[in-house]
UniProtKB/TrEMBL annotation:
GO terms for molecular function: ABC-type nickel transporter activity; ATP binding. It is a peripheral membrane protein. It is found in: Cell membrane. This is Nickel import system ATP-binding protein NikD. Residues 5-271 form the ABC transporter domain. Its EC number is 7.2.2.11.
Length: 349
């Protein structure tokens, strides 16, 4: 069967006073029906930009989609804005990290503005837009109320009816996020995009929310794109994992494959930085995400890559290579179908 979502060669640039930021570069991504795919990478790697492009909430300008297509259930959403609007909030729904932050009076304006200024901040505007869209389609007030109570109950919120009358600031972070999940489910979507919905929560609450999401996914055969910087979370929720670095997908594999046999040096670095028993979240990779106004030539990861081959990695653009059925890796080490062991030996020479 065709995937329900198929992102093909998506490139996005941002125009700012500092120059043109080439944020996404040829992103390919698919989600099958009933499948949960995790998009994993560091903060600033382009995960949210990918999500917003799919949802149609990318602020344009300053954002600009410079190439690619986003196929959803047989329609190219980029070529047909009407279709995009139609699916938004109805068939496709989105859960943000903590959208209530933007609606809450207890946060200083400065921090909200700072958030809006960094382009992930398009969030506040887009969230309200999506919400209005969702609610606008539910004209029957008592029906909305009933559905809301039912969903809050499904999200194991005590006193769902009373909760309807409380302000977000009166709820704990975990309860707030449950409300958000309930809101995202209110139109019974077939496709869900979750952008780091559990990041601000403690581990216990995070596990509960992941559990509730998983439950819903199975119950309704939902398809989901789950965005996170945390590979541990991805392992809990996803069937398949796409690793993103600096606006490019560098590796794709089933969750087992990514954990049992990571191929890309970046994936290996990420795995090394999974919090161990100490709870310390170390950064397994030196350096930081590159400047998008002038991304590194060749492989975007080469300035940080322990296996980089001078004369190749800093010069030759990388393409994604299929490795087996469901796997792909974008790294010069695997160009001739080499194993990591063989590749590592060559890289070490
Ligand atoms: Fe490292 Fe080269 Fe592979 Fe890039 S292409 S990840 S620099 S080995
Ligand atoms: Mg983000």
């Amino acid at each position: 069967a065709d995937p329900i979502l198929s992102v093909d060669d998506l490139s996005v640039a941002f125009e700012t006073y500092e120059g043109r930021h080439h944020v996404l570069n040829g992103v390919d991504l698919t989600v099958d029906e009933g499948e949960t795919v995790a998009l994993v990478g560091e903060t600033g790697c382009g995960k949210s930009v990918t999500a917003k492009s799919i949802m149609g909430t990318l602020p344009r300008p300053p954002g600009e989609i410079t190439s690619g297509s986003i196929g959803y259930d047989g329609t190219d959403l980029l070529a047909d804005p009407d279709a995009h609007e139609r699916v938004q909030g109805e068939e496709m729904s989105m859960i943000f990290q903590d959208p209530m932050t933007y609606l809450s009076p207890v946060y200083p304006v400065g921090s909200m503005m700072a958030d809006v200024a960094s382009y992930s901040g398009g969030k506040s505007v887009s969230w309200l837009g999506v919400l209005k869209n969702m609610l606008g389609r539910r004209t029957n007030r008592s029906e909305i109320r009933e559905r809301s109570i039912e969903l809050l109950d499904r999200m194991r919120i005590p006193d769902p009816e009373g909760t309807l009358d409380r302000y977000p600031v009166e709820l704990s972070g975990g309860m707030r996020q449950r409300v958000i999940v309930a809101m995202a489910l209110i139109n019974d979507p077939t496709f869900l995009i979750a952008d780091e919905p559990t990041t601000a929560l403690d581990v216990t609450v995070q596990d509960q929310i992941l559990g509730l999401l998983r439950e819903r996914v199975e119950e309704r055969n939902l398809s989901m794109l789950y965005i996170t910087h945390n590979l541990g979370v991805a392992r809990e929720i996803a069937d398949r994992i796409c690793i993103m670095y600096a606006g490019e997908i560098v590796e794709v594999g089933t969750t087992e494959e990514i954990f049992d046999a990571p191929l890309h040096p970046y994936t290996r670095g990420l795995l090394d930085s999974i919090p161990k028993l100490t709870g310390f979240e170390g950064d397994g990779i030196d350096g930081q995400i590159p400047d998008y106004t002038d991304p590194p030539t060749g492989c975007r990861f080469h300035p940080r890559c322990p296996a980089a081959m001078a004369g190749t990695c800093d010069v030759e653009p990388v393409e994604s290579h299929a490795v087996g059925d469901d796997r792909a890796v974008a790294c010069h080490l695997y160009e001739d179908g080499m194993s990591f062991g063989e590749a590592a030996t060559i890289a070490a020479e």
